Amino acid sequence: MLHSSSRPGVVGLALGFLAGLGACAPGGAPIGAAGDAAARVYVAPGQHDEIYAFLSGGYSGNVVVYGLPSGRLLQQIAVFSQYPEKGYGYSEQTKGMLATSYGFVPWDDVHHPQLSMTDGMADGRWLFVNGNNTPRIARIDLTRFETEEIIEVPNTAGGHGSPYITENSEYVVSATRFAIPTPQADVSIREGVFGGMISFIKVDPANGHMQLAFQLHVPGYNYDLSRAGRGVSHGWSFFSTYNTEQARTLLEANASQRDKDYIAAVNWRRAEQCVAEGKAEEWKTPYAHNLVGEDDVARTEMIRTQKVLNAKSCPEVMFYLPTPKSPHGADLDPTGEFIVGGGKLATVIPVHSFSKMLKAIEAKDFDGDVDGFPVIKYEATIAGEVENPGLGPLHTEFDGNGFAYTSVFISSEIVKWSLETFKVVDRIPTYYSIGHLLIPGGDTKKPYGKYMVAMNKITKDRYLPTGPELTQSAQLYDISGNKMKLLLDFPTTGEPHYAQALPASVIKDKQLKAYALAENRDPYVTRTEQDVKVTRQGGKVHVNMTAIRSHFLPDNIEGLQVGDSVFFHVTNLEQDWDVPHGFAMLGAQNAELLIMPGQTRTLVWVPQRAGIFPFYCTDFCSALHQEMQGYVRVSPKGSGVPLAWNGGSGTIK
Ligand code: RUQ
Ligand code: CUA
């Protein structure tokens, strides 16, 4: 991605361009918006949006859900970052989700949401997202909007070209952005041999569980973005590469030397064959696999081996398609025939043809090889070049009506072009410096179309100023007619990269309303108020507590001591929709718990001082929510105050 901080030259250029646009219209008239924009995005109070959009939260580490066309923020899904609002990564049940081979890593950088697919269409079961920094892939369940699984990707640095799913969710595919020694080694930065890794992670069709099937060891370029083939190209995956110069320093100049880098075309069916023939080696890099169990508790398995297939030992597994210049996006049209490169520094948008590529492979129409991997002649695969695409084309999405839409960073615009003539037919400014763009279903066989969302890196004057940091922003466009029309600006959290969206009808009726209390298998569940209790095991005290409108039980506990580890296992006894309870304790070096109906969550508190400490419900749950509170008494270490509580068999009456 193009980070403004690292590309001052580019930003300068972009802003220069903006000055030319006269971005501030007098009198507060909508800038660049369609006259009837307000009516088109207005969703009346009480009405629902037509579309769910899942925006990556970038360096917030989470995913943000918006309704379209209103741009209303519906939910934040905690994924790679601890999220105190939900107690995610703080409660005992969720901490395991953030385990890695490096220990507990409570943050990451989310770039690309990817909906699970059946027959090339988003099926609404799961959303996968990547963590770029400590490479991981997460799976979010779309009946609960909660993260259910995170798998670390070993032998990889910069999990950027990820998690691009195949058309029947056979694999989520992930590639290395930063070449490193593979396997890791203590070598000279300048002289060491670095490699790249493309990982194929199997998705169990029954429950979505991920398993690293194999990794493909490839030359040490920066594999940037990817798409899995669909339709005619199913069985292949495509990866843009930059820094084929293999520079190790000052990449902005040193990785921009060559006219062309490559799109790597990987035949993963062929890779599967080679693995089946026993050609993969066993490597021993540890990686974490975190999964929420039947008891709703995240547990970690540290896995210590993986299958690595050296691409060189598997002839015809990978071909390089020369692509101008430092390509970023590698996107496939709905039929899977066209592979569109987004050359950040290119003057055209190159469009490769998959069928021409197969013919060129057949005819060995090669231009030599790199490292033994055939480089196919540029002319042999190219179906067309879109001229005049603006400065800095990045990503392309499709409307299913024969048009492609490419985001253009430096000149801050979207260009619409024809898949038949490869001519630009329309262009529209973005405010400002667009990265990804999204068309609902724009990466499926049948795009839903209708709207397009631009995700912009810079907002400058678009909103009320808020100190040095301004909000990032998305913009909604109408693409139902010949001309694109701007409808709406809406702020986003973190820095959104990519997003995916689907019609609300696909998932809205499948939403879980409450966890069934009868099926709660948490080891510390308390199913009725008669069962509440407090037990001491040495320095550990377990409190089996219940919450129901509008009290906790027990709500008086005595006999805790300074330095104890107190485990509050709070079960929410409610079985109604939209009645979570919260739990917060004075002085706890922790967040709150937010407990869904029927669920159990555990907060650990180590009291530091003697005294009386209140706890309370944080979620305004009823008219008597303010009354939903309790007290614990903490005595000095070694004190003789007996353990006592109210409720169940407790002795405080
Ligand atoms: S990126 S702005 Cu997907 Cu990280 Cu292109
Ligand atoms: Cu429970 Cu407020």
Architecture (CATH level 2) name of the largest domain: 7 Propeller
Which structural class matches the secondary elements? Answer: mainly beta
Instruction: Report strand %.
Output: 35-45%
Task: Give me the side-by-side strand order of the main sheet.
Answer: 6-7-8-9-18-19
Shape: globular
Oligomer: single chain
Q: Please tally the β strands and state the result.
A: 47
On the 0 to 100 scale, the average pLDDT is: 94
CATH class of the largest domain: Mainly Beta
**CATH superfamily of the largest domain, please?**
YVTN repeat-like/Quinoprotein amine dehydrogenase
- The proportion of residues forming helix, as a percent range, comes to under 10%
Number of domains: 2
Q: What is the first-to-last residue Cα distance?
A: 62 Å
Major pleated sheet: 6 strands, antiparallel
In words, what does this structure look like?
The protein is built from seven helices and 47 strands. The N and C termini lie far apart (62 Å). The radius of gyration is 27 Å and the shape is globular. With 653 residues, it is mainly beta. A six-stranded antiparallel beta sheet has the order 6-7-8-9-18-19. A six-stranded mixed beta sheet has the order 10-11-12-13-20-17, covered by helices on one side. The protein has two domains: 461 residues, Methylamine Dehydrogenase, Chain H; 129 residues, Sandwich (Immunoglobulin-like). The structure holds (dicuprio-$l^{3}-sulfanyl)-sulfanyl-copper and dinuclear copper ion (CUA). (dicuprio-$l^{3}-sulfanyl)-sulfanyl-copper (RUQ) binds next to β6, β28 and β32. (dicuprio-$l^{3}-sulfanyl)-sulfanyl-copper binds next to β6, β28 and β32.
